[in-house]
From TrEMBL:
Belongs to the LOR family. InterPro entries: LOR, LOR_sf, Tubby-like_C. Pfam families: LOR (PF04525). It comes from Thomasclavelia cocleata. Gene3D superfamilies: LURP1-related (2.40.160.200). This is Uncharacterized protein YxjI.
Length: 157
């Protein structure tokens, strides 16, 4: 499964459209006013299906994840020197990035690749291509990308 994650050019809060490989909008993400990033995910029918919320006042970035309104776990950044690394604690996935923090690989605790995230650099807004091995993991991978992008946005000012 391939998805294209594109930030909208003009919006007061973070807003994204997520497209399938045929150009259809599969998800819409809208930022809400909050202390820290709060991003609500909607399906293509406009139904709220998930939320990611940044925890503030933590040493390393941490994001709570909700499917519908039920808490399911956290995405936590780990301390590393050269390559960014995150843990998705609800299913023990490891997310490792490259030195430039543009490309990431998601691996489960058995070493199976769940998917990869690649930043497309020649765009006006943040754009990522997502390759996901199973459609059932799409929402989790989307939440990971949102956390990574929000963390990078916070670091850049």
């Amino acid at each position: 499964m391939k998805l294209l994650f594109k930030q909208r050019l003009f919006s007061w809060f973070d807003s994204y459209d997520i497209y399938d490989e045929y150009g259809n909008v599969i998800y819409t993400v809208k930022g809400e006013l909050s202390w820290g990033h709060k991003l609500c995910i909607y399906d293509n029918q406009g139904l709220h299906i998930g939320t990611i919320k940044e925890e503030v006042l933590t040493l390393l970035p941490r994001f709570k994840m909700y499917i519908n309104d039920q808490y399911i776990g956290q995405i936590k950044k780990e301390f590393t020197l050269f390559k960014p690394s995150f843990i998705l604690d609800c299913n023990n996935w490891q997310i490792t990035g490259d030195f430039l923090e543009w490309n990431y690989e998601i691996i489960d605790d058995n070493g199976v690749i769940i998917g990869d995230i690649n930043k497309e650099i020649f765009n006006l807004t943040d754009t990522y291509s997502l390759n996901i091995n199973s459609p059932q993991n799409a929402l989790y991978v989307l939440m990971i990308v949102l956390a990574i992008d929000a963390q990078k946005c916070s670091n850049n000012g």
